[in-house]
């Protein structure tokens, strides 16, 4: 392809993370729906709305898994081609785990998509490659977040936009109580029943707790060099969209 791929050294990746997704890749799409009661679809739609895909643009979807955001980005830009000039948008789904990418490929419907195995902390792309970089439910698993944020900024073109969708902190006490009950009790049980893997889903729940809150994570975007950082809460802060620009 004409994308600027670069060679990166083989590094020791967080093996626990890799193990979690290796084991659950096949049932991943189903678990995603169950864990969020299907709401992750609406959050992803709103994220792509904000990404504002245009004909001819290039998206890199980091930790892109089976390619939900990449597909939505390309499809939305395609709709716009009916009224606006320009070629099709293209998206590269980049993920550390080949199995996730293969599961995505098997889903079909992969026009204008490319698939690249890569670590968010050492992205296999040249500087200034993409108009837009997204990461959904991926930054939480990265060992060094600021390193990854700087990498995602590096591969953006100047004035490019960055959007990060991630679980965050419920903004009211009442919601927090319901959410705690759901995530600490129901999710590990569902993980056992559906994926036969309670520990991995327990780990996912704990990783959400350890992740910084909305304001602290916004500061990390600024530390990585993003400008005009903004935060939008979804479903009362169960998830949040952080955005920033390469300026
Ligand atoms: N973005 C997709 C979505 O929203 O459906 C997938 C999200 S899934 C919860 C997290 C993904 O992050 C997995 O596919 C996993 O392999 C990937 N991942 C974990 N650590 C990563 C890293 N350091 N670099 C790139 N991808 C990573």
Automatic annotation (TrEMBL):
Q: What does the record list as GO biological process?
A: methylation
Q: Which GO terms describe its molecular function?
A: methyltransferase activity
Kindly list the positions annotated as binding S-adenosyl-L-methionine: 66, 95, 119-120
Report the EC number(s), separated by commas if there are several: 2.1.1.163, 2.1.1.201
Q: What's the catalysed reaction?
A: a 2-demethylmenaquinol + S-adenosyl-L-methionine = a menaquinol + S-adenosyl-L-homocysteine + H(+); a 2-methoxy-6-(all-trans-polyprenyl)benzene-1,4-diol + S-adenosyl-L-methionine = a 5-methoxy-2-methyl-3-(all-trans-polyprenyl)benzene-1,4-diol + S-adenosyl-L-homocysteine + H(+)
Q: Known Pfam families for this protein?
A: Ubie_methyltran
Enzyme class, UniProt record, top EC level = transferase
Q: Where is the signal peptide?
A: none
What superkingdom heads the lineage?
Bacteria
Q: Which keywords are on file for this protein?
A: Menaquinone biosynthesis, Methyltransferase, S-adenosyl-L-methionine, Transferase, Ubiquinone biosynthesis
The cross-references to HAMAP family, in alphabetical order and at most eight, read: MenG_UbiE_methyltr
The job of this chain, per UniProt, is described as: Methyltransferase required for the conversion of demethylmenaquinol (DMKH2) to menaquinol (MKH2) and the conversion of 2-polyprenyl-6-methoxy-1,4-benzoquinol (DDMQH2) to 2-polyprenyl-3-methyl-6-methoxy-1,4-benzoquinol (DMQH2).
Family from the record:
Belongs to the class I-like SAM-binding methyltransferase superfamily. MenG/UbiE family.
According to UniProt, the name of this protein is: Ubiquinone/menaquinone biosynthesis C-methyltransferase UbiE
The species this protein belongs to is Hyphobacterium lacteum
Give the encoding gene's name: ubiE
């Amino acid at each position: 392809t004409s994308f600027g791929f670069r060679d990166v050294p083989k590094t020791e990746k967080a093996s626990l993370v890799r193990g979690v997704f290796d084991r659950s890749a096949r049932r991943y799409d189903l678990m995603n729906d169950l864990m969020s009661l299907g709401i992750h679809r609406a959050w992803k739609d709103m994220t792509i709305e904000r990404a504002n895909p245009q004909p001819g643009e290039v998206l890199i979807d980091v930790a892109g898994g089976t390619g939900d955001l990449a597909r939505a980005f390309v499809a939305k830009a395609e709709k716009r081609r009916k009224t606006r000039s320009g070629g099709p948008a293209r998206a590269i789904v980049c993920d550390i785990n080949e199995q996730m990418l293969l599961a995505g490929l098997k889903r079909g419907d992969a026009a204008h998509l490319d698939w690249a195995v890569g670590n968010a902390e050492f992205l296999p792309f040249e500087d200034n490659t993409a108009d837009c970089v997204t990461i959904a439910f991926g930054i939480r698993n990265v060992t060094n977040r600021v390193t990854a944020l700087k990498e995602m900024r590096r591969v953006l073109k100047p004035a490019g936009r960055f959007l990060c969708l991630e679980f965050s902190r419920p903004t009211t006490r009442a919601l927090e109580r319901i959410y705690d009950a759901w995530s600490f009790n129901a999710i590990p049980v569902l993980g056992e029943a559906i994926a036969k893997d309670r520990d991995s889903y327990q780990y996912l729940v704990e990783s959400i707790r350890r992740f910084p809150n909305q304001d602290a994570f916004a500061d990390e975007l600024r530390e990585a060099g993003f400008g005009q950082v903004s935060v939008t809460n979804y479903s009362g802060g169960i998830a949040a969209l952080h955005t920033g620009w390469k300026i």
